[in-house]
Design a protein that fits this description.
Elements (H helix, E strand, L loop, with lengths): L13 H6 L7 H27 L4 H25 L4 H28 L8 H23 L4 H19 L1 H4 L1 H6 L3 H13 L2 H6 L3 H4 L7 H4 L17 H21 L1
Helix pairs in contact: 2-3, 2-4, 3-4, 3-5, 3-6, 4-5, 5-6, 5-13
Length: 261
Amino acid sequence: MTDRPDNLPAAAPPAAADEGNPQAFSLRGQLRPVLWIVVATLAVELGAYFLALGSTSRRDALLLGLGACTVWVCLAAGPFAVGGRRALTALLRGGAVADASLLSLLVYWALDASADTPRLFTFVNVLQTYCTLAALAIFAVALVLAFSGPIARCAAATASAVILMLALTTPLWTGSALQAAREDQTRRQVIRAAVYVNPFYSITSPLAPRTQFVWHQAQEMYRLTRIGDYAAPPPVPWYASAFLYGCASAILAASHLVRKR
């Protein structure tokens, strides 16, 4: 048995080999960026809630907090997912936005439960809202992963934020389509599509009996859009957006797998 020659380099330890491989997954390496994502998410969502709580009613503070959660997930999940080079790291970073939002929702629920007035936000509502936010985050991650290359993924992240914000603001830009529609049936279909793709409707619809809040009927929104003047929007089940964006995510993931083959 011969000894190893001195001029041969020693084998790199597994940890060092992983550091040189950009595709290697390291849970420890993802801990810091995920922690920053969680901190940023909580700062935005809880900051908006507590600022509103000091100047408005408990109901309005809750609605503003839910709006902050929805907008933040729509804007942040895709860009944060770009930092993950692998599918798992992208999902970990983008999904951390929705998971951190769950912590914010639990804070909303705990403070609402501690009040002497009737509850506005139940634990079931927390789970329902989280399902919608998770579906939005997964859709943004799936759109980012559908492309390869840093430039293409950055563009996809921007596109995901634009698409989700357009869906979130349907009452603001569907008025022209409603005015152009000549038949009542067409108008009803436009309104149905506008409220079903809007995640804020799915989030607030279970709360409507207790909060008496319908977004397009709010005083501030009614000055900007009169979507309810053309046809009565149908009731939106809480799972509508979760189902739609979940299906879209599955289609994007399937197309990505087909292209890789």
